[in-house]
Amino acid sequence: MPRLSSDPNLSICPDYAEEAYADARLQLTNQNIDEDQAILILRNVWLASNNADKAQWRNQVEEDAERRQHLERLREEEQERQDQDRIDEDEAARKEDRKKNKFKYTSIPGLDVPMKPVIIPSAYAVRKLDKGDYVELWYFTNSGLDDAKLKSSVDEDAMVMATLAGGDTAWVSAASTRNAGVVVDNQNLSFEDFCQACPRIIEAM
């Protein structure tokens, strides 16, 4: 059945009483059907045809709507497939980049910027604290920390000859030795050095 090009609901039944339809009326008139009856027959035929066209038009509109919806679904599915392909490609590229540049993706801890300098006492003082032994406050004064910075340049594996308490000598780690001539006993510390050292040693402990 050919498609309808216009909506039959907008069509208007012709006036079959007009002169233009005289031949059509004449073909229907006979001894049993007069001209008025012929006009009625022509009108009924047109209405029947128009009703059939209206039904076809409804079906045609519904089919067109279903076809458009189907095409729209196909377009959406194709778009989703393309989007997913891009996502997969981007993810694969990121994974490959992570393999090649591991340090680029190393997480940065959410720590605040230090507002005060880090206190790093000498290796000797740290070892004494770890053992729970007595350690002079001087190691935590500015002078003691400066001395620790100088000793930090010494190779930790370097060994020096040291005299032990019993008078014997032995090889010991250079980083663990102390310069007794530099260290100031607690009772001889200035008040300023004492105030510097106390909070630092407490924090170190």
Can you offer a commentary on this structure?
It contains five helices and two strands, in the order H-H-H-H-E-E-H. The protein is mainly alpha-helical and 205 residues long. A two-stranded antiparallel sheet has the order 1-2. The longest helix has 66 residues, at 35-100. The mean pLDDT is 82.
State the gist of this model.
The protein has five helices and two strands. By secondary structure, it is mostly helical.
What's the topology here?
Elements lengths: L21 H7 L6 H66 L22 H9 L10 H10 L7 E5 L5 E5 L17 H14 L1
Antiparallel strand pairs: 1-2
Helix pairs in contact: 1-2
How helical, in percent, are the residues? 40-55%
Q: Report the end-to-end length measured between terminal Cα atoms.
A: 98 Å
Alpha-beta content class: mainly alpha
Strand order of the largest sheet: 1-2
List keywords for this structure.
2 strands, mainly alpha, 52% helix, two-stranded antiparallel sheet
